[in-house]
Amino acid sequence: MLLSPALAISAVLFTLGVAGVLFRRNAIVIFMCVELMLNAVNLTFVALAQSLGLGGQVFVFFVMAVAAAEAAVGLAIILAVYRHKQSVSLQNMNLLKDG
Amino acid sequence: MTLTFFWIFGAIAMGSALLCITRKNPIACALWLVVTLFALAALFVLLDAQFIAALQVLVYAGAIMVLFLFVIMLLNLGRPGPSDIKGPLGLGVAVLLGAALLFLLQPMTRTTLRSAITLPPGSVPALQQEQGIVGSVANPLFGAYLIPFEIASVLLLAAIVGAVVLAKRKL
């Protein structure tokens, strides 16, 4: 049965995605780490769909649609920020910060 | 045999994900993420989800990652420069929080499903034999999940309009 290995791999991939979001400063790389987290969840869905029915695979379809929408809008936001700041580093995005 | 292949592709996925989050160059990050996505597609095939594996390669490794690479190259971020990885303090906090999260997620691997809610073993391949690999996903998608499917199409339309509005200098 492949359920336990799949859930273990998915837990590791999700953790790597979270760690990437926490220790990178480049906004595009952080977006890629979010995609990594979404993929870890997709692996969980597919693994559980094997024993709980194909609804899980349908959900992966929806996750992919949402990820595509998120990537398009997110990268457009990054482009707009780059035009103002000439940088994609999150350190420079401090307009709302006090002082 | 299947288990061996599963662990091989799982190790490729985890290793390239680690390389993806530690490479300095954003293009290297993106390419290692493509390797992870391909390894995940292989895992999906081993988990009886061939259609999802094809979608993974087409949509994720194809479309979404090309979008990422396109933006990286449009903004000329591939050139060598200072690293964007945080200093020792930020790195330490990230590793600590990651270890805590992994500790919290680790009981998930001991999941056992009660037989009252699981399908009998081998019923998913049987369903795929009967309705076809695409048909077995399409039937619930256009039946029980029809309204979410339509909402997803509206979401994609909103994303297209939003991306154009955000990225265009002057409308």
Topology:
The complex is a heterodimer of chains A (99) and B (171).
Chain A: H1 3-23, H2 27-52, H3 55-85
Chain B: H1 2-22, H2 26-46, H3 50-74, H4 88-105, H5 123-131, H6 133-141, H7 146-167
Can you tell me about this structure?
The complex is a heterodimer of chains A (99) and B (171). With 99 residues, chain A is mainly α. Chain A is built from three helices and no strands. The model of chain A has no long low-confidence stretch (mean pLDDT 90). Chain B has 171 residues and is an all-alpha fold. Chain B is 73% helix and 0% strand. In chain B, helix 2 runs antiparallel to helix 3 and helix 5 (123-131) crosses helix 6. Chain B starts with a helix and ends with a helix. The relative contact order of chain B is 0.06. Chains A and B meet through helix 1, helix 2 and helix 3 of A and helix 1, helix 2, helix 3, helix 4 and helix 6 of B.
Short account of what is shown:
The complex is a heterodimer of chains A (99) and B (171). By secondary structure, chain A is an all-alpha fold. Helix content of chain A is 79%, strand content 0%.
| CATH architecture label name of chain A | Orthogonal Bundle
Distance between the termini of chain A: 57 Å
CATH architecture verdict of the largest domain in chain B = Up-down Bundle
The CATH topology of the largest domain in chain B turns out to be Four Helix Bundle (Hemerythrin (Met), subunit A)
Helix content of chain B: over 70%
Give the percentage of residues in beta strands of chain B: under 5%
Portion in beta strands of chain A: under 5%
Helix content of chain A: over 70%
How many angstroms does the end-to-end distance of chain B come to?
57 Å
CA-atom Rg of chain B in angstroms: 21 Å
CATH topology of chain A: Helix Hairpins
Q: Let me know the number of strands of chain B.
A: 0
Total discrete domains of chain B: 2
Order of helices and strands of chain B: HHHHHHH
Low-confidence stretches of chain B: none
Task: Quickly count the helices of chain B.
Answer: 7
Query: Mind describing the biggest β-sheet of chain B?
Result: none
Supply the number of structural domains of chain A.
Answer: 1
- What is the level 1 CATH name of chain A? Mainly Alpha
How many β-strand stretches of chain A?
Answer: 0
SS-derived structural category of chain A:
mainly alpha
